[in-house]
TrEMBL record:
GO cellular component labels: endomembrane system; plasma membrane
E.C. code: 7.2.2.10
Compartments, record wording: Endomembrane system; Membrane
Gene Ontology molecular function: ATP binding; ATP hydrolysis activity; calmodulin binding; metal ion binding; P-type calcium transporter activity
PROSITE patterns, per database record: ATPASE_E1_E2
Subcellular location, principal: membrane
Source organism superkingdom: Eukaryota
Keyword field contains Transmembrane: yes
Name used for this protein in its record: Calcium-transporting ATPase
Family label: Belongs to the cation transport ATPase (P-type) (TC 3.A.3) family. Type IIB subfamily.
Length: 1074
């Protein structure tokens, strides 16, 4: 959730288009957020500058800063975190500088014998020696231990098969070298939350007033009767504090659990000769770990072997410099990312023994993050708070003036204050009661819990989204997803199942009747094909020694081709041992192919290529026929192969070509440094095979796409596959309605889009439904063009090269299974099952967050408006208020904490997906909400004020004493007011639907809170009269109270029949003024 320093900014500003509900570009050159003069108008906090975030904090009216800003970005801690990073980076740079000096000295001086390592437990080397060697990049020490092979022997590790991996072995290694965890700062205790809840300025004033009232009451009326007024206020304040602290503490625990989940990276290690997936926390010293592009280096270690391995060490050094790793520079630092190539590493240090562990232990506490909705609600709370303060001040002035001028009377008509006659103690007590009422009005009027309701609903949503296979990394993405107008989705694994199998194959120049029938292949062709499959791969094949199913690992495409190779008779380990790899060109999403150069025992060199069929085919000048003879690639044969590719692609198959060429060993660079920069020849290739790989659509994906279309969210497919394969899948998924839609620019190739000017791309972007043969940069260009057009863009991505698009998009969605760590780090939400249906669920939850906040605002403002008007009118006209301090504190508790819990945790409904996306600048309080609010507040004010002024005659209390009649009347007003809120809580659930009870019984929390509120209200009226200054009500008055509350239901139905204009009221008044 941490926001971190500003990560760049969008150059586009958006304004709300009232007809479409979508923002439109306005051409503001500044950041979206900088264009607005309103400090609370922040469109996105994803790339907001720290200065911009400071502005709204300074503008907010806050009663309890420690609570209000708890879940926002802690600007001070963010600066401290950056300072700590700089210190540790400086430490790393000092070590490297010292290393260079030492290496220079070693060229002159002959090294003395190595100090023998101290054994640790069952191992011949200790953790300190390992940690210092890796941390200091001490190559000399590594050589004297016997290189990586000697070090593996000291650690009892087989470099090919890894550790034994049984429980006893793992426990022994953890005891000797530690675990891959680091000490984390403990989360705040419940007492800290209790202390923070105390910090509210109004509650402190009320406690002081309660203490003064308690002292004066005991002094004037004795301890038996005199403690009630002060004691009841103190008890009510304590109750508010405890309930607030409990609610906040529960939220905190939810966030802690989610943060744990975010840190838990899954990765593969080699144990007992097979690849197994484990948590990053379960890595031990001695583990052998395969690394590929996009991975995070999970611990400190030494490179065993690698090909074109390049590491981005910027997370540790602070310099965005890519460092190439080989046998001369084999040291790998935990926390760095693999920028290119692949390899395997031997783990030498874990946890706190690594620099990354030290860094994470120092800054592990999350610094929080605000969301745009949170900032806007702070603006709403500030405006309401200022109005409330002015009202409270007016009430205070009026009541004090009336009191000290002798216009305030007791129910029996006695004047409360007579100058020169009333005792000082009694006068002070009267003034304290007036101050208490005024301060309590501030407590009710300032909706301190309003911005925190966002955190509550986000915490609830994030927990539920985990069950829906979505892990939220950035809080703001959760609500932004509700505004998404378009989703740019990958094809493979997201719209399809990612379960690939080779179903068609062209080998030897013709189609194989059975693609896995090895008898149809000549020995020469079979040998070359199997060599290309086994060597030109980042996957692996494990054959259990005792028999059993073959275990294949790698990407889905790699697995499909390796499985096909096994069926053709490939013995993976034997084939790989028969030739040695000279150089690797890892698969590149720009070039759409990958290659490898291998040397055979007879000194022959073969260069194998594998990649997108039409691209590899274009480099082929010959092919091997079924007899293994080389035949030139004539025009007719080239056309036949292209026709085969088109036919397979039209059948929604992914087409991959496998080719090779012989090469002269004398032309291969001899030195390792030269080979690292060697460009593998990719011309004059000889085609070996073209395979068609089937990856079926996910069940239900068509329904999910249709759901998005109905919700006003356009789904666009962006894939690296052939345009015809993309079209076939898009038709199957419902992204393209029919063949009639499959024309340019609806269907476009990445190269065509890339070649356009910026303006052309903007025009075309709106129309694109499918982009085939796209590169990650094409995806980035599409995102930028769509955002310029005012769209709120969600993008899925899994590769390292998708990181810029994920970062640029409003919501970046990384894939949890196939996604690289680099993609995940640049994303906002991780889709744990790689399923498009889960993406749609995220949209529902995003809309639910916004809808729940609106429900809570409507409910809270109704209470605010009604309570303020009732007390103000009564105070000005009669000098007394029907709702006293304790009663108002109880109302505040219902409204703030319990109301937020009930309404902010409503689960999403299908109705949400029948609306258009919420525009970012759409007012929080819509015309529909204003209508509902005014109807309910007006009803409550009118009924309760009529009771206040004419209650004695209406309720037939004229025969009672004035004091008792007033108490009964005020008790009924209080009871009816609370019951109105309970009934209105149901209305708030469905602001724009007639049936407010739909699904209510499924929301157990809502029903529980309503039930608890009702039970507590009965207890307060019937048993706690001394505390709340109420009297018991008979069954008739209870019926009257319930009837007053019940009328709010039919009234809400009638209110919803009143039409409201489309244009927001705020915009209407602005137009009138202009």
């Amino acid at each position: 959730m941490s926001n971190g320093p500003s990560r760049g900014s969008s150059p586009y500003h958006r304004r709300y288009d009232f007809e479409s509900g979508v923002s439109r570009g306005r051409g503001c050159e500044e950041d979206d957020n900088e264009c607005s003069s309103d400090p609370f108008d922040i469109k996105t906090t994803k790339n907001a500058s720290l200065e911009r975030l400071k502005r709204w904090r300074q503008a907010a009216l806050v009663l309890n800063a420690s609570r209000r800003f708890r879940y926002t970005l802690d600007l001070k801690k963010e600066e401290e975190k950056e300072q700590m990073r700089r210190k540790i980076r400086a430490h790393a740079q000092v070590i490297r500088a010292a290393l260079l000096f030492r290496e220079a000295g070693e060229r002159v001086n002959v090294l003395g014998p190595l100090v023998p390592p101290h054994p640790t437990g069952d191992y011949a080397i200790g953790r300190e020696h390992l940690a210092s060697m890796t941390r200091d990049h001490n190559f000399s020490a590594l050589q004297q231990y016997g290189g990586v092979k000697g070090l593996a022997d000291l650690l009892k590790t087989n470099l090919e098969k890894g550790t034994i991996g049984d429980d006893a072995d793992l426990l022994s290694r953890r005891n000797a070298f530690g675990s891959n965890t680091y000490p984390q700062k403990k989360g705040r205790s419940f007492w800290m939350f209790l202390w923070e809840a105390w910090q509210d300025l109004t509650l402190i004033i009320l406690m002081i007033a309660a203490a003064a009232s308690l002292a004066l009451g005991i002094k004037t009326e004795g301890i038996k009767e005199g403690w009630y007024d002060g004691g009841s206020i103190a008890f009510a304040v304590l109750l508010v504090i405890v309930v607030t602290a409990v609610s906040d503490y529960r939220q905190s625990l939810q966030f802690q659990n989610l943060n744990e989940e975010k840190r838990n990276i899954r990765l593969e290690v080699i144990r007992g000769g097979r690849r197994v997936e484990i948590s990053i926390f379960d890595i031990v010293v001695g583990d052998v770990i395969p690394l590929k592009i996009g991975d995070q280096v999970p611990a400190d270690g030494i490179l065993i072997s690698g090909h074109s391995l390049a590491i981005d060490e910027s997370s540790m050094t602070g310099e965005s410099k890519i460092v190439h790793k080989d046998q001369k520079a084999p040291f790998l630092m935990s926390g760095c990312k693999v920028a290119d190539g692949y390899g395997t590493m031997l783990v030498t240090s874990v946890g706190i023994n690594t620099e990354w562990g030290l860094l994470m232990a120092s800054i592990s506490e999350d610094t929080g993050e605000e969301t745009p909705l949170q900032v806007r609600l702070n603006g709403v709370a500030t405006f309401i708070g200022i109005v409330g303060l002015l009202v409270a001040l007016a009430v205070l002035v009026v009541l004090l003036a009336r009191y000290f001028t002798g216009h305030t009377k007791d129910p029996d008509g006695t004047v409360q204050f007579i100058r020169g006659k009333t005792r000082v103690g009694k006068a002070v007590d009267g003034a304290i009661k007036i101050v208490t009422v005024a301060v309590t009005i501030v407590v009710v009027a300032v909706p301190e819990g309003l911005p925190l309701a966002v955190t509550l609903t986000l915490a609830y949503s994030m927990r539920k989204m985990m069950a829906d296979k979505a892990l939220v990394r950035r809080l703001s993405a959760c609500e932004t997803m509700g505004s998404a107008t378009t989703i740019c989705s990958d094809k493979t694994g997201t719209l399809t199942l990612n379960q690939m199998t080779v179903v068609e194959a062209y080998v030897g120049g013709e189609k194989m009747d059975a693609p896995d029938n090895a008898l149809l292949l000549s020995p020469t062709l079979s040998s070359l094909l199997i060599e290309g499959i086994a060597q030109n791969t980042t996957g692996s094949v494990f054959m259990p020694e005792g028999g059993g199913d073959v275990e294949i690992s790698g990407s889905p495409t790699e697995k499909a081709i390796l499985y096909w190779g096994v069926k053709l008779g490939m013995k993976f380990d034997r084939v790989r041992s028969e030739s040695s790899i000279l150089h690797v060109f890892p698969f590149n999403s720009e070039k759409k192919r990958g290659g490898v150069a291998v040397q055979l025992p007879n000194s022959e060199v073969h260069i194998h290529w594998k990649g997108a069929a039409e691209i590899v085919l274009a480099s082929c000048t010959a092919y091997l026929d079924k007899n293994g003879s080389r035949e030139p690639m004539g025009e007719d044969k080239d056309k036949a192969f292209r026709k085969a590719i088109e036919d397979m692609a039209a059948g929604s198959l992914r087409c991959v070509a496998i080719a090779y060429r012989p090469y002269d060993l004398d032309n291969v660079p001899k030195e390792e440094e030269e080979r690292a920069g060697w460009q593998l020849p990719e011309d004059d290739l000889i085609l070996l095979a073209i395979v068609g790989i089937k990856d079926p659509c996910r069940p239900g994906v068509r329904d999910s796409v249709q759901l998005c279309i109905n919700a006003g969210v356009k789904v666009r497919m962006v894939t690296g596959d052939n345009i015809k394969t993309a079209k076939a899948i898009a038709l199957e998924c419902g992204i393209l309605g029919s063949d009639a839609d499959a024309f340019e620019p609806n269907l476009i190739e990445g190269s065509v889009f890339r070649a356009m000017s910026d303006k052309e791309r903007e025009e075309v972007a709106e129309k694109i439904s499918v982009m085939g043969r796209s590169s990650p940069n094409d995806k980035l260009l599409l995102v930028q063009a769509l955002r310029k057009r005012g769209h709120v863009v969600a993008v899925t991505g899994d590769g390292t090269n998708d990181a810029p698009a994920l970062h640029e998009a409003d919501i970046g969605l990384a894939m949890g299974i196939q996604g690289t760590e680099v993609a995940k780090e640049n994303s906002d939400i991780i889709i744990l099952d790689d399923n498009f249906a889960s993406v749609v669920k995220v949209v529902r939850w995003g809309r639910s967050v916004y809808a729940n906040i609106q429900k809570f605002i409507q409910f809270q403002l109704t209470v605010n408006v009604a309570a303020l008007i009732i007390n103000v009118v009564a105070a000005v006209s009669s000098g007394s208020v029907p709702l006293n301090a304790v009663q108002l504190l109880w109302v505040n508790l219902i409204m703030d904490t319990l109301g937020a819990l009930a309404l902010a945790t409503e689960p999403p409904t299908d109705h949400l997906m029948q609306r258009k996306p919420v525009g970012r600048s759409e007012p929080l309080i819509t015309n529909i909400m204003w209508r509902n609010l005014i109807v309910q507040a007006l009803y409550q004010v009118v009924v309760l004020l009529v009771l206040n002024f004419h209650g004695r005659s209406i309720l037939h209390l004229k025969s009672d004493t004035n004091a008792h009649a007033d108490k009964v009347k005020n008790t009924l007003i209080f009871n009816a007011f609370v019951l109105c809120q309970i009934f209105n809580e149901f209305n708030a659930r469905k602001p724009d639907e007639i049936n407010v009870f739909s699904g209510v019984t499924r929301n157990h929390l809502f029903m529980g809170i309503v039930g608890i509120t009702l039970v507590l209200q009965i207890i307060i009226i019937e048993f706690l009269g001394k505390f709340t200054s109420t009297v018991r009500l008979n069954w008739k008055y209870w019926l009257v109270s319930v009837a007053i509350g019940f009328i709010s239901w039919p009234l809400a139905i009638l209110g919803k029949l009143i039409p409201v204009p489309e244009t927001p009221f705020g915009e209407f008044f602005k137009r009138r003024r202009s």
